[in-house]
Write a structure and sequence with these properties.
This protein is mainly α. Helix content is about 60%, strand content about 0%. It is built from nine helices and no strands. It is globular, with a radius of gyration of 16 Å.
Length: about 170
């Protein structure tokens, strides 16, 4: 399936498609890819972002939360977009990602209220100390998105055994 067909399928989430194709998003995805080229552990790429989006959407449905699908996908696509800055510049990636996200969200048609909820969820996705349904499901999805059971580097990973995802739940 080519990009034109994918875009046609995503028309109902037009703003999410605009994120995928935004020059700043593309540039930062490339920087993440380069920064993690030799990384043996989990990567912060489109596979991870989509896993987080899909899990968060499942959680929204299971918990009957009033969160829009576009906000879920936008948050998931942007929550680790600045990871390369943590590697190269020592900037916490949630802070870097939030800054990048603000620009992209402003330029892709999200309202100020939507942008603020998304940025708040990005800023709190590591520790789970955010409030609101979006922040909660993004935190949960990010933590449960890792397939530790099938990971080649699982034995070398510094995640505690309690944190590792060794069961398929969703």
């Amino acid at each position: 399936m080519d990009l034109i067909q994918k875009k046609e399928e995503l028309e109902y989430m037009e703003r999410v498609w605009k994120i995928f194709t935004h020059p700043l998003y593309v540039q930062n995805m490339d920087k993440n890819r380069k920064a993690e080229a030799d990384r043996i552990f989990c990567r912060h790429d489109v596979d991870h972002f989509m896993n987080v989006a899909r899990l968060a959407y499942i959680f929204k449905l299971e918990r009957n939360y009033e969160v829009s699908k576009e906000e879920i996908y936008a948050t998931a696509l942007l929550h680790d977009i600045g990871k390369w800055q943590q590697y190269l510049e020592g900037i916490p990636h949630e802070v870097a990602s939030a800054g990048i996200a603000k620009t992209i969200l402003d330029e892709t048609g999200f309202s100020v209220e939507e942008r603020d909820r998304i940025v708040k969820a990005i800023l709190t996705h590591r520790k789970g100390d955010g409030d609101g349904e979006l922040a909660e499901i993004i935190y949960d999805a990010d933590k449960l998105s890792r397939d530790c059971l099938f990971c080649r580097a699982e034995a070398e990973c510094n995640w505690s055994e309690e944190k590792k995802n060794k069961k398929i739940l969703w």
